[in-house]
Amino acid sequence: MMQLKQLLEKKSAGAVTVAASVSVGAAIQTMHKRRVGSVVIQADSGMPIGILTERDIMCLCAEGKTDFENMSLEDCMTTELVVGKPEDKVTEVLGIMTMKRFRHMPVVKDGQLVGLVSIGDLVKATLEETMQEAEALRNYITS
Q1: N or C: which end of the chain has fewer CB within 10 A?
Q2: Higher per-residue pLDDT: 87 or 75
């Protein structure tokens, strides 16, 4: 079974981070420029302390809170983070993310952010693993 560390090794880009001191507008600009659906906010120690996602921004808009340049990121980010460890199994993390209904999970090792996985990354890895297993079974049966 694939672990998060194996998935992160295959990903070309690491987690996109911003400082807690930036505005929501600056975080949105970073997300747009980097073409990502979330940014991780890190403490000076490197530990993730929050995440801002497209869903968070949509909720702000629905509440009429759209002065993003003057809005504090610390007041708007999700702070109750569920984080993964490099040795966590992809299928287990996929289950957690599905059950708790979120799409981005920071991966932390020794108090440091080492990457970010999305539900799309996990689904893709699971499909690839299933296809490899099916091919191995086909080869076994025909040999």
Answers
A1: C
A2: 87
